[in-house]
C-alpha cells in the first residue's frame, strides 16, 4: 500500500496544528547553563534526541581547563593546552546555540534565564550544570581574592596556571601544604592525586628533600589505603597525611605571611607553598534559584535529575545531590545522558529512560602509575544507590598500576571527546 | 492483515503517520543512558586502547565478555565492578544496544 504525495503532504501540513505531547519536543526551548562535563554532554545528547528543539548553551567562560588531568598540569607533567577547551568549538561540534555571558539569575517559576548582555532567555526546560562554589566563610583569613596566594586551582581557571608556576619554582627542601576539604566536594581523590603528582615532579627533578603535608578536614578519603601504600613505595617520607582526628583541619590562614593554622594548634605552620581547597557547596546561581536544600546542594529525582524543588529545572554534575556517586567528570557525563533522555521523554510523552549511571575515577600516582574506583548506580525506591562498586586491588603490582595509567590516558581522550567533541 | 488495510482511509493513515513521526524522529538510533555511558570509555568509531570500539563487536561477543567479567572476575579489571550484580537479561539487552550487528535481521 502506498500513500500519494498529496496524502503525505497533507500529513506534513497537519503537524503544526497538532497540540500533542509528541509535537512538543520539536519546538521546545531548552537552556543549558554551564559548559563543563555535565552541561556540554547534556547539550550534545539533547541535540541528538530532540533534533528540532532550540538548544542554547550558556557559559560565562570562553575557555576553561578541565578538572581531570589538571593535577598533571600543576605538577608540570603535561602542558596546559592539553586540558584547555574552547566553548565556541564545543557548541559548534554539538550543533547548539551558544551564549558566552554571565547568568545573573534563574526565574524558576517563569522559566527564564537572565543574562547580563543577552537579556532573558525563555525556556521550556532548564538544565543547570553550574558546578561548585567555595565556602569562603569556612577558613579565617581566606577569601576569593586572597585565595590566589594559596591557590585551590579547583575550578579550571588561572589558579591552575598560578599553582603550576609555584610548584615549578619550589627549591629543594621546600615545604608544601595541601588542605583537603570535608565531604562532599568536587573530585574526592583530587587533593591526594595532587600530592602524588607534585611528589613525582619533585622526585623527577631531584628535589628530594621537599616535604608535602596534607592537612585534612576528615579522617578518611577515597582510595586511602591504596594511596598510602603507593606513597610509601614511590615517595617514602615525602608525603605526610594529617587527619582531622590529629587536628588536620585548616581553620585559619595568613596568605601574606604564608602561614596556616590547624585546629587547636597554638602556633601556625610556615610553609613555602600552600594549596588550600576550601569546603564547597553548589554554585551561587543554584542557591539564588532556590534549587538548594539545607545541605548546600541540589536535591534531584534520581530517575531524571529534575530538581525536587523546581519543576522543569534539572540539575546535573557537581551541584547535584547525587550521593553515592562522587562529584566527578565521569559522573556528570553519565548524569547528563540520563537527563537528556529524561527531558526528551517528558517532551515527547515517550516512556522514561531506565535510570542507570556509571562512574570511574582514575587517580594518577605518578606519570605512569594509577589507581581507580568505579561503580554502577541506579534509582532504587526513589533514591540513587550503588548497584555495584569496586576499586583497584591493594595487591596490585607496578605493572597493573602502569596499565591503569594507560587506561586513565585513554579514558581522558574518550570522555573529553564525548563531552566536548575534542 | 493486508486485506484489512484498505478499510482504513488513506488520510487517516497519513494522520497516524504524522502523529508517529515526531515521537520517533531522532529517537530511533538513541541508546539508553547506560549504553551511552559505556561510550564514556569505549569511544564509538575508533579503538582507544585498551578500550575497544564496541560497535565493531557482535552482540554475542559483547554479551560473552560481560558475562565473563561477572562470572570469572579479574580483580585487576574495571568491568567486574559494573557487572557484578547484572542479570543475564540486562547483559543481553545492553549488548544488543551496543552492537549494530545485533540490529540486523
Commentary on this structure:
Chain A is of the alpha/beta class and 422 residues long. Chain A is 30% helix and 27% strand. The longest helix of chain A is centred in the C-terminal third of the chain and has 23 residues, at 398-420. Chain A starts with a helix and ends with a helix. Chain B has 105 residues and is mainly alpha-helical. Chain B is globular, with a radius of gyration of 19 Å. Chains A and B meet through helix 1, helix 2, helix 3, helix 10 and strand 22 of A and helix 1, helix 2 and helix 4 of B.
For the residues shown, what is the average pLDDT of chain A? 94
Approximately how much helix is present in the residues of chain A? Answer: 25-40%
Count of helical regions of chain B: 5
Taken as a percent bin, the fraction of beta residues of chain B is under 5%
Mean pLDDT of chain B: 78
Radius of gyration of chain B: 19 Å
**Unreliable runs of chain B, pLDDT <50, ≥5 residues?**
1-8, 11-28
The number of E-state strands of chain A comes to: 24
Secondary structure tally, helices of chain A: 11
Termini gap of chain B: 22 Å
Task: Decide which structural class fits the backbone of chain A.
Answer: alpha/beta
Largest sheet data of chain B: none
Overall radius of gyration of chain A: 23 Å
Amino acid at each position: 500500500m502506498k500513500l500519494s504525495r498529496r496524502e503525505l503532504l497533507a500529513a506534513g501540513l497537519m503537524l503544526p496544528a497538532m497540540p500533542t505531547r509528541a509535537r512538543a519536543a520539536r519546538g521546545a526551548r531548552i537552556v543549558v547553563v554551564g559548559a563543563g562535563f555535565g552541561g556540554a554532554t547534556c547539550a550534545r545528547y539533547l541535540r541528538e534526541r530532540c533534533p528540532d528543539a532550540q538548544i542554547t548553551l550558556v557559559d560565562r567562560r570562553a575557555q576553561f581547563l578541565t578538572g581531570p588531568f589538571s593535577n598533571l598540569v600543576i605538577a608540570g607533567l603535561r602542558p596546559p593546552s592539553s586540558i584547555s577547551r574552547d566553548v565556541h568549538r564545543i557548541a559548534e561540534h554539538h550543533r547548539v546555540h551558544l551564549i558566552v555571558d554571565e547568568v545573573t539569575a534563574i526565574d524558576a517559576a517563569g522559566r527564564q534565564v537572565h543574562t547580563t548582555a543577552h537579556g532573558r532567555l525563555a525556556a521550556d526546560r532548564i538544565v543547570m550544570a553550574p558546578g561548585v562554589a567555595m565556602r569562603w566563610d569556612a577558613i579565617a583569613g581566606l577569601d576569593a581574592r586572597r585565595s590566589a596566594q594559596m591557590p585551590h586551582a579547583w575550578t579550571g581557571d588561572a589558579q591552575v596556571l598560578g599553582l603550576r608556576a609555584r610548584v615549578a619554582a619550589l627549591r629543594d627542601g621546600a615545604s608544601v601544604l595541601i588542605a583537603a576539604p570535608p565531604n562532599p566536594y568536587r573530585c574526592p581523590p583530587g587533593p591526594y592525586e595532587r600530592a602524588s603528582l607534585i611528589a613525582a615532579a619533585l622526585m623527577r627533578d631531584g628535589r628530594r628533600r621537599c616535604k608535602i603535608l596534607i592537612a585534612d578536614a576528615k579522617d578518611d578519603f577515597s582510595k586511602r589505603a591504596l594511596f598510602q601504600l603507593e606513597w610509601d613505595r614511590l615517595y617514602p617520607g615525602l608525603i605526610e597525611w594529617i587527619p582531622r582526628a590529629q587536628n588536620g583541619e585548616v581553620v585559619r590562614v595568613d596568605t601574606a605571611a604564608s602561614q596556616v593554622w590547624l585546629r587547636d594548634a597554638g602556633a601556625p605552620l610556615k610553609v613555602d607553598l600552600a594549596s588550600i581547597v576550601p569546603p564547597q557547596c553548589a554554585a551561587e546561581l543554584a542557591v539564588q534559584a532556590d534549587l538548594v536544600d539545607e545541605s548546600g546542594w541540589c536535591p534531584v529525582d534520581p530517575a531524571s535529575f529534575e530538581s525536587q524543588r523546581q519543576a522543569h529545572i534539572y540539575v546535573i554534575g557537581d551541584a547535584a545531590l547525587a550521593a553515592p556517586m562522587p562529584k566527578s567528570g565521569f559522573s556528570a557525563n553519565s548524569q547528563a545522558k540520563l537527563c537528556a533522555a529524561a527531558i526528551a521523554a517528558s517532551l515527547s510523552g515517550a516512556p522514561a529512560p531506565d535510570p542507570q549511571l556509571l562512574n570511574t575515577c582514575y587517580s594518577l600516582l605518578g606519570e605512569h602509575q594509577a589507581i581507580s574506583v568505579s561503580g554502577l548506580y541506579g534509582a532504587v525506591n526513589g533514591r540513587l544507590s550503588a548497584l555495584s562498586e569496586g576499586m583497584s586491588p591493594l595487591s596490585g603490582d607496578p605493572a597493573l598500576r602502569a596499565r591503569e595509567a594507560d587506561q586513565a590516558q585513554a579514558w581522558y581522550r574518550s570522555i573529553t571527546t564525548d563531552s566536548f567533541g575534542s | 492483515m493486508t486485506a484489512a488495510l484498505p478499510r482504513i482511509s488513506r488520510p487517516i493513515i497519513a494522520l497516524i503517520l504524522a502523529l508517529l513521526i515526531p515521537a520517533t524522529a531522532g529517537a530511533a538510533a538513541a541508546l539508553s543512558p547506560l549504553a551511552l555511558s559505556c561510550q564514556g570509555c569505549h569511544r564509538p568509531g575508533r579503538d582507544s586502547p585498551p578500550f575497544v570500539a564496541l560497535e565493531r563487536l557482535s552482540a554475542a561477543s559483547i554479551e560473552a565478555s560481560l558475562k565473563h567479567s561477572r562470572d570469572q572476575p579479574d580483580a585487576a579489571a574495571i568491568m567486574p565492578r559494573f557487572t557484578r550484580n547484572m542479570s543475564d537479561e540486562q547483559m543481553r539487552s545492553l549488548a544488543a544496544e551496543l552492537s549494530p550487528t545485533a540490529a540486523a535481521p
